[in-house]
Amino acid sequence: MNSLAPAGGAYGRAQTAARTPRGIEYEVIARVTRRLKAAADHRQEDFPAFVAAVMDNLTLWTTLGLDVAEPTNALPAQLRAQLFYLFEFTNQHSRKLLNGDDASPDILIEINTSVMRGLRGEGGVQ
Asked: What is the C-alpha to C-alpha distance for residues 112 and 71, in angstroms, rounded to an integer?
């Protein structure tokens, strides 16, 4: 059984390397979104976990915003502008959540879900 362990590791690495950039983006956004949703559901009981999830989402959107702001980004200009707008909105809305303002995390979850649909070719941000 132990002789198969190195082979399993090699196959796992090959599978990881075969993922597309779009698939990797989808997985990262999905992971952050799941965490944000779970933390939002328990916001009152575990506010520090909620803050961490909001910050992870904000980090994700800051990275996306910086990426689409690069002149060398190959996405169409209109899509880049839409994504940058979503970054700005996410930034402002996250601050409201972190300040304890009367704001809901649901819109951030919906934005992420819409982007995930777009990455899967199901509509969304286009």
From this structure: 24
